[in-house]
Amino acid sequence: MNIGITCYPTVGGSGAVATELGLWLAGRGHKVHFITTDLPFRLRENYHENVYCHKVILQSYNLLKNPPYTLALAVKMAEVAQWEKLDLLHVHYAIPHAVCAFLAREMLGGALKFVTTLHGTDVTLIGQDPSYTEITRMAIERSDAVTAVSASLRAETYETFRTTRPIEVIPNFIDPRRFHPDIHCDHFHPQARDGEKILVHASNFRNVKKVDDVVRIFHIVQESIPARLFFIGEGEAMPLVRKLCRDFGITDKVEFLGEQESVACILPRCDLFLLPSWLESFGLAALEAMACGVPVVASKVGGLPDVVEDGVQGRLLRPGDVEGMAAAAVEILDSVNLPRYREACVRLSRERFDIAKIGPRYESLYQKLAGKP
Ligand code: GMT
């Protein structure tokens, strides 16, 4: 099949899912056309057979304050659909991508099918802003198929948008050939010093991730065991995070690695992943850590209970319960417990979330929509 994919190319879970899925589909022999403003971040490393990238060019004019992304993307979608004879278009993150796909289909007189995958804040945060609710509801209802990454996100979509549109839950996934505990990378991978345990957090540092609590948790943990904290990513919460590290006097124990192309090279060296978010529709970053044998301490919110079984691959606590999360971290990092947690993480990620099991669900949805066997 010829499959179009639109996602945000910047660092983020929805872009990671879109790109990993595209690579898997390309490996299955489909022609995959990314339609984005930039190369998606996980595509930047190599040349990939069957993968094509169509860049959306944003023209700016004096009259306009911002270049109209939505229109430029819709036009590009229609153009690529026609030229490349797309069987369908799969858009990741409803705002504004589902609206753009709807416009593209209108431009083509209905000759384009599109699937919308809901990822998280497109429903739980931005979608609930009254300025966007109605248009997002329209785009969801007019999609040819809608998927959500967790049952909790599906339930919230029904509640927020009062839609009766069938929504299929297709969970996120990992490729165990890329995310596993024994990966050996040639390039930079920081190490622990003198038997320290490594705690890690990776995200786009938006306020919803509650990264300041990562610092608070780490501050308590390092008082009882030798430990280091790795931060992977960048974003709006960074100034507060750095300030807290200074206030606690722990800057020498915290490494800011910034945005990294290959988290799969860093995670296997870590001992515990912290994700104390306010909201998390799935928690792909936690799943990727688990696939690398790293247990998780996270908030009991959204889709995280589907990814982490409390007490088995890690612990889930109330968001904001810094002391509880720190105590859970110390318990997991105890050398008597850690191997059991590590082993459970790898097992569950492979049993339930291997792309070889999840990818075919998207593939059969596409086949049904495109009317192709
Ligand atoms: O944070 C977002 O909503 C954006 C999105 C992204 O692109 O980073 O993250 C969401 O989608 C991921 C992939 O499906 C999920 O793993 C994240 O849990 C989800 N984030 C939230 O719900 C906060």
What order do the helices and strands come in, and which of them pair?
Layout: E1 2-6, H1 13-27, E2 31-36, E3 51-55, H2 69-83, E4 88-92, H3 94-107, E5 114-118, H4 121-124, H5 130-142, E6 145-148, H6 151-161, E7 167-169, E8 197-202, H7 211-224, E9 227-232, H8 238-248, E10 254-258, H9 263-266, E11 272-275, H10 284-291, E12 296-299, H11 304-307, E13 314-317, H12 322-333, H13 338-353, H14 355-370
Parallel strand pairs: 1-2, 1-4, 2-3, 4-5, 5-6, 6-7, 8-9, 8-11, 9-10, 11-12, 12-13
Helix pairs in contact: 2-3, 3-5, 7-8, 7-12, 10-13
The structure holds ligand GMT.
Describe this structure in words.
- The chain is α/β, with parallel strands linked by helices and 373 residues long.
- It has two domains: 189 residues, Rossmann fold (3-Layer(aba) Sandwich), CATH 3.40.50.2000; 157 residues, Rossmann fold (3-Layer(aba) Sandwich).
- Helices cover 42% and strands 17% of the residues.
- It has 14 helices and 13 strands.
- The strands form two sheets. It has a seven-stranded parallel beta sheet with strand order 3-2-1-4-5-6-7, with helices on both faces.
- Strand 8, helix 7 and strand 9 form a beta-alpha-beta unit.
- The site of ligand GMT has 20 residues, from helix 1 and helix 4.
